[in-house]
Amino acid sequence: MKEALSPQNIRNNIRHGKHDGNTSGYANGFVQGNIVILPKEWANDFLLFCQRNPKPCPLIGMSSEPGDFLLTEMGQDVDIRSDVPQYRIFKDGLLTEEVKDITTYWRDDLVTFVLGCSFSFEEPLIADGIEIRNITENKNVPMYKTNIACKSAGRFSGNMVVSMRPMVVADVIRAIQICTRFPSVHGAPVHFGAPEEIGIENINVTDFGDSVTIKPGEIPVFWACGVTPQVALEQAKPPFCITHSPGCMLVTDIPNSKLSIM
Amino acid sequence: MKEALSPQNIRNNIRHGKHDGNTSGYANGFVQGNIVILPKEWANDFLLFCQRNPKPCPLIGMSSEPGDFLLTEMGQDVDIRSDVPQYRIFKDGLLTEEVKDITTYWRDDLVTFVLGCSFSFEEPLIADGIEIRNITENKNVPMYKTNIACKSAGRFSGNMVVSMRPMVVADVIRAIQICTRFPSVHGAPVHFGAPEEIGIENINVTDFGDSVTIKPGEIPVFWACGVTPQVALEQAKPPFCITHSPGCMLVTDIPNSKLSIM
């Protein structure tokens, strides 16, 4: 049912308070985006941070000019103030509130960034017959802080956050091939195998999301994750910032296949 | 020096007895081919075997009709009777002779098959900064019989032979990406990590070629190998068959880049 809803239907439900949870599994085939909204004076640094770290921060859209809340390139009638199910408000790097609409918080100097999300690559993996454990187990994908340093940009810096999906070797090879076609939704994995090589001490203890079962013979595979900019934001401590709540994404009208480079 | 020789120069030297060793490292940038020559009545089975097992048996050329010894699609003036440095003659599946010219063995019913070779993908890996251990150590690439069954075709069957190159995780990911672009020279690896999962008992004991050093932190990566059809031929035991000697390939005029699918 939820898979078959159109992006427009879902956004309309969200806007009118009929949908306030996560968007995983909704509108199959369409790109969903991570959202970061910053004051203009912080936007250039963040744009540079994305440009220098395209694997964790793949920029797929941004507002035309400061204060613009309509993101027409992302879909018909998209209003970033109301079309995300849940938002997080940060002040000086601290999460202060979670809200379902940011119209009353909107300011003329805010710039919106939309970043690609792993939902877009999980779909072709599943279509190819690869099991995605977090989906099978109905959990949020496990995410970990690593020791992989992002390239700094102005006031933004920090280590990469990765998501993890366990699979057998043959599926790892196939997943690398498939994800390589989708550089704007994190692309190929950044690591597989020994978690300690990238600074993860205990694979069963996640920093974000849920832990999932790793079966005998399976290898943990790690992708750059869109939570990375949230960690960089917490460290940079801009006076004001808005993001989506994890899993509660902007559903766009862009078909996933449009993000494939071949 | 040898890298800079043109394919035509090398074939001319070979034809006139001035080069009779292996062709590794010669004519950088040009495709080299594994050779299988069979009587017409065995050719269809072998063609089907290649079609069903494209990773170990990637067919890049064949003679236009039985008895035809000129392979013009492979290069200027290519004569398969004289342009390979060393050949192996098999009778009833048994190696009977190694010779430097097969003109006196030629028959009107012989069909020639040219199969892609790993030399073509080692080159873009090296260009990308990945160390190829067998080249660094000046050895023949290590090859192993596996328990991976090929798909049978008529009288041909057998298990896959793989070549192995050790590398660190980041290079494995990159090598999978690069080799995926070259499906007609074995394409992406078929396995990495635990050798026992594909029936290799001792990674230091090769079935063909030499063993190479695997350093701490490196993972053995396995590619489908062009020696696979030789094993299938030994099992099928056609009354007559000719192949190249390992490492002594047909040097073609085809640029490696022509085999890249993107």
From TrEMBL, chains A, B:
Signal peptide: none
Region (Disordered): 1-20
Annotated organism of origin: Thalassotalea profundi
Keywords: Lyase
UniProt name for this protein: Putative hydro-lyase GCM10011501_30320
Source organism superkingdom: Bacteria
Compositional bias (Polar residues): 1-12
InterPro entries, alphabetized: D-Glu_cyclase (IPR009906), Putative_hydro-lyase (IPR038021), UPF0317 (IPR016938)
EC number per UniProt: 4.2.1.-
HAMAP family in UniProt: Hydro_lyase
Family statement drawn from the similarity comment of this UniProt entry: Belongs to the D-glutamate cyclase family.
